[in-house]
Amino acid sequence: MSTNGLSGEEENRTGHEQICCLVDDNRRCYRPAGNASYSKRIQKTVQQRRLRLTLDHSVRHIYICDHHKNMIHNIRTKRKRKDSDVEGDSPDNDSDHPEVDFLQMPVNTLRRYKRHYKLQTRPGLNKSQLADTVARHFKTIPVVEKEALTFFIYMAKNYKSRFDTKHMETVSG
Description:
Number of domains: 2
Structural class: mainly alpha
Number of helices: 7
Order of helices and strands: HEEEHEEHHHHH
Number of strands: 5
Oligomer: single chain
Largest sheet: 3 strands, antiparallel
């Protein structure tokens, strides 16, 4: 062990050269570690969702690879199925619909959405809980795609938006 507390192999891996600190289904992950860490909150999520991920205690860091980061993020944002056992009925299984990452939105936007749709929640939700609530509600809103596209094209052709008027002023001015 050297003076910096790292063993010989780990001492050579500094910065982005570290490997993922996880063991996936009893197999050590050897992908390069990114900047995401395996925090206590993430460990709790992994435990609750019964993922087969464990921390390799022989490494001296808690950085995980992008593969596991994305896997955990996808599990966290997926909605739990409540009453349907038929695979095709779940919105999670419909790959034609794009996912909206509500965690990327500011908390004020999530609060405005909650207020606009009068969503009932307990007071004091954190951003993650609020994003989950908004995502669950958002997935329940029915959209007739053909009507939505027709309306969008109509509005885009016939009405100028605020952006269009600001853009035209800067171009002509």
